[in-house]
Design a protein that fits this description.
heterodimer, A: 401 residues, Peroxisomal Thiolase, Chain A, domain 1, 3-stranded mixed beta sheet, B: alpha+beta, 8-stranded mixed beta sheet
């Protein structure tokens, strides 16, 4: 495994059930305020709790982009206009050229909520979808990247990565490979997933929705709570200007497949172990040099147990870890970027967030699970994302030098 | 970016394999053939039964490409080969089925767990690694009409950045009504390439040099009229000019459009 050259992270933006922007996210983590509410999503009785973002429905896209209107693109638009992200991309485009900046976004369901509406409005005679349904700009997987590239006026390569709940973590890896191969010098990476009937009903059918707000790593955890989120980071080759002003970096990544089952984790967690080990190798770090692990930690019985086995195999009980999905819910394809940004906040603030709704850590767990927030300076964070199809991604972020 | 092509797999209308493509180029008619390939033999019986048309298509061409590459490189194993799958629709037939179920208020509780996990875009990537017990990463890229260009760009970047062989598999299966009215897909089409860093490419079928060019360009089409006639019938059929150049063994430079700009592909024997 060749060691990777760290890439700079020069801008970031996040919206989740914790609020709009990094400051709102920080505040919620410090004050231990979760964003989960009883499921009130219209038109479906799937139960449980959700991490719903208020006000998406009321947002409007600017007229030239109006045909992109769907819940997912509305949220992406809000994220572009948060934390100064779009202006930071504009400055980077001036500096290095719009054609040298790629757009690589992860999403699992894109604008399918618009497709759900269209299917409900089919012509009763012919079964045809309504004439105002714009598949390409809404429902289609690629509409997220098409929308963001168009909105930002970028001219580099653009595509969507859709590896289920590992999507936006994998997007960071794919952009890194494009930069390493010399195709581009920077990339807008991240993604979004928004609440829709398909995922609410689908996870309910799998029996994985918790009847109470999800409790990752808890002995009495009962499943997951679905959330929605959008987030971006601007990833750049080398330090643009003064490193002291831009100390945040991607240090390593690891990718693997379970090769085992579409929706159940590998019982020995071999895929997750491989992803974390590869990320460490690529960053040139020993396990003890990681200060905090943000777990995938969905709150289901099998996933949390499998991930604990993997973390304990690589790190023993020496590295504090927690899932932040008790705060945000499981934001599916957006989970990778949400938790990447939480990792960056942890590095900037020296804040290790303890798991929310976590009363008693599963006594069978061997890793060092954090229940309470811990404040201390840290330098390196590993973040895990695992998805259906056995897709595993581990990312390492750090302060450089 | 440069890569050697070690293996090639194909499924198209009347062209169930690379030999059929060569026969068409030699002047034969396209044969009559099944619409979609048979279920992959390597999957367990229950998974084989549930595999949708896109999964069957993707795994058939991926297995054919790897089998061809393994003849030149006996160490090549699908279990350790990195993979990039690319598709505009994913398993669109399963998505359509789920949307029909969800649209009926009385039926929403009738969503099946298998149907749900088989609706994800990376379902082919997932079943590929499950079929081979593979631990290597398997990516899943979507870019609508630019899925060929964006997927191949991503696969070549992975070959370059990781200095490893990468399977690239491009596929789209027809969509059922009413989604079919939004997105034309007249027939199933899939192709797969085993790509290798140049220094590791012994026994290569052809060599590729690729570059992202930030100006618009139209898609270069196959020279053979029977192949050119298929290009607009499926997003994955955009790859036919590349397949033709590989099969003919003649050098050709091709433009493949992306959302913005295009990919220039120089194919040499």
């Amino acid at each position: 495994m060749t060691r990777m050259t760290p890439l700079s992270i020069t801008a970031a933006s996040l919206i989740s059930a914790l609020g709009r922007g990094k400051a709102a996210t920080r505040g919620a983590l410090v004050e231990r305020r979760g964003g989960l509410v009883a499921n009130d999503f219209p038109g479906i009785a799937s139960g449980g709790f959700i991490g719903r973002i208020p006000g998406i429905e009321a947002h409007r896209l600017p007229e030239p982009l109006a045909r992109f209107t769907c819940r997912n693109n509305l949220l992406l638009d809000l994220a572009l206009a948060t934390d100064g992200f779009a202006p930071a991309v504009a400055r980077a485009a001036e500096r290095i050229g719009a054609a040298r900046i790629g757009v690589v976004l992860g999403t699992s369901t894109s604008g399918i909520a618009r497709g759900e509406e269209a299917y409900r409005a089919r012509d009763p005679e012919s079964g045809a979808l309504p004439p105002d349904f714009d598949f390409t700009h809404t429902h289609d997987f690629f509409s997220a990247a098409r929308f963001v590239q168009t909105s930002l006026g970028l001219a580099g390569p653009a595509f969507v990565v859709s590896t289920a709940c590992a999507s936006s973590a994998r997007a960071i890896v794919d952009a890194t490979q494009l930069i390493a191969a010399g195709v581009i010098d920077a990339a807008v990476v991240g993604g979004a997933d928004t609440l829709c009937h398909m995922t609410l009903a689908g996870f309910a059918a799998l029996g994985l929705i918790s009847p109470e707000p999800c409790r990752p790593s808890d002995a009495e955890r009962r499943g997951l709570s679905i959330g929605e989120a959008a987030g971006f980071v601007l990833l750049e080759r080398g330090p643009p200007g003064d490193r002291a002003e831009n100390p945040l970096a991607l240090l390593g990544y690891g990718e693997s497949s379970d090769g085992y089952h579409m929706s159940a984790p590998h019982p020995e967690a071999l895929g997750a172990i491989a992803a974390m080990t590869e990320a460490l190798d690529r960053a040139g770090l020993a396990p003890d040099e990681i200060d905090y692990i943000n777990l995938h930690g969905t709150g289901t019985i099998a996933n949390d147990a499998s991930e604990d086995r993997a973390v304990a195999a690589v790190f023993g009980d020496r590295v504090p870890c927690s899932s932040t999905k008790g705060f945000t819910g499981h934001t599916l394809g957006a989970a990778g970027i949400v938790e990447a940004i939480i990792a960056l906040l942890a590095l900037e603030d020296g804040l290790l967030p303890g798991g929310l709704n976590l009363d008693r850590v599963d006594p069978a767990f061997r890793a060092q699970v954090l229940r309470d927030n811990v404040s201390r300076p840290i330098r390196r964070v590993l973040s895990n994302s695992f998805g259906f199809g056995g897709a595993n991604s581990s990312l390492i972020f750090g302060l450089v030098p | 970016m440069r890569a050697a092509i070690l293996g090639l797999g194909l499924w198209g209308p009347g062209m169930p394999d690379v030999a059929a493509l060569r026969a068409v180029l030699a002047g034969e008619e396209r044969s009559r053939a099944d619409d979609t390939p048979p279920p992959p033999a390597l999957l367990a019986a229950n998974e084989r039964r549930r595999a949708g048309p896109a999964v069957r298509l993707a795994l058939a061409v991926a297995d054919a490409a790897v089998a061809m590459a393994a003849r030149a490189d006996p160490d090549l194993s699908p279990a350790t080969l990195r993979a990039v799958f690319a598709s505009s629709h994913g398993e669109g037939a399963v998505v359509d089925d789920l949307l029909k179920t969800l649209a009926d208020p009385g039926e929403a509780a009738g969503v099946s767990p298998t149907q749900f996990h088989n609706s994800v875009h990376n379902v082919a990537a997932g079943y590929w690694s499950i079929a081979h017990g593979g631990r290597a990463p398997a990516d899943s890229i979507a870019a609508h009409d630019a899925s060929f260009g964006a997927g191949l760009l991503k696969a070549l970047a992975e070959v370059t950045a990781e200095a490893r062989k990468v399977l690239f598999c491009l596929f789209d299966a027809p969509l059922p009504f009413p989604l079919s009215a939004c997105r034309r897909t007249d027939f199933a089409f899939g192709m797969a390439l085993v790509l290798a860093p140049e220094e590791g490419g012994t026994g290569a079928l052809a060599h590729l040099t690729a570059e992202f060019v930030p100006v618009a360009a139209a898609l270069d089409r196959p020279r053979h009229p029977a192949l050119a006639a298929l290009v607009d019938g499926n997003p994955a059929a955009q790859s036919l000019a590349l397949l033709e150049a590989i099969a003919r063994g003649t050098p050709r430079t091709l433009a493949v459009p992306l959302l913005s700009g295009h990919l220039t592909l120089a194919v040499t024997p």
